[in-house]
Amino acid sequence: MTLNQQIITIGMIVLGTVLTRFLPFILFPANRPTPPFIQYLGRVLPPAVIGMLVIYSLKDVNVLGPSRGIPELLAVSIVAGLHFWKRQILLSIAGGTVAYMLLVQFVF
Amino acid sequence: MQEKVIRKAFRAAFPRTIPILAGFMFLGMAYGIYMNVSGFDFWFPLLMSLTVFAGSMQFVAVGLLLGPFEPLKAFMLTLMINARHLFYGLSMLDKYNVPGLKRYYLIFGMCDETFSINCTADVPPDVDRGWFMFFVTLLNQIYWVVASTIGGLFGSLIQFDTTGLEFVMTALFVVIFLEQWMKEETHYSSLLGLGLSLLCLIIFGGSNFIIPSMCLLLAALMLLKKPLEKAGESN
Prior knowledge:
The complex is a heterodimer of chains A (108) and B (235). Chain A is mainly α and 108 residues long. Chain A has helices at residues 3-27, 36-57, 70-86, 89-107.
């Protein structure tokens, strides 16, 4: 690819990304009443989307690989355990991440 | 005192972005290094982090830029990989309805991590919500741009054993999920999101499961509209 072609390719990626981010706001502008079904989706979607993000962030875990996804399972349990125990966001995240790093570097 | 309002919002926003600072330093540098060893000058990752600001798409773009010139394919692939943003937008129609030009930047910079913070954060009542969300978005993008530029500049010179640090993003999403879980009265929507995505991941695999998950989720929420609204009313 020439430099111009690379710039055009990046431009297409920017265009596609911006489109996916702006489209809902263009279709349902603030100055016009939002259809009731879209309002309903706006209310019920967030928890579902966060659930989807949890799975999305684990999508590359290979349960058939050598570690069988055990480090991920353990680390997620540690995050959850810490969070139910102390409910300190940074502590839960740091504790789980350090545990995961130790697991994949030294145990598995 | 506009300046005071802004400073207060910044001080409330910054601590919420600390996990993302850690995660983006790692992922952003990994991305910059990947671009560097693929033969791109540092200004490529810099430019892309400024204009695209969508992590997984930027990794995919490296392969696209090394392949034959197919702009339409690049566009279609971007729409598919980033389709999840449509759900973020639908979830934020009200919250991102803030005054001023900030609004456009909030929408432009709505990556996974920024969305998850802005969607669920309990902003203190004396803090301006628009500026709070603006700083969450801006700080996250700064982390990403700086990290990917450093990676692009120094490339393979950087040696660090940070194996496993990428888990910080999973931990962040799990914590946000749990925070939401503890606040909500019914868990139908959380469980549907988790369960249907997992089902689609098992069936379609890691690179193809997001669009089927979104379709299935939409269908389920459509079918369950009556019972879900009833459950919502009784809260």
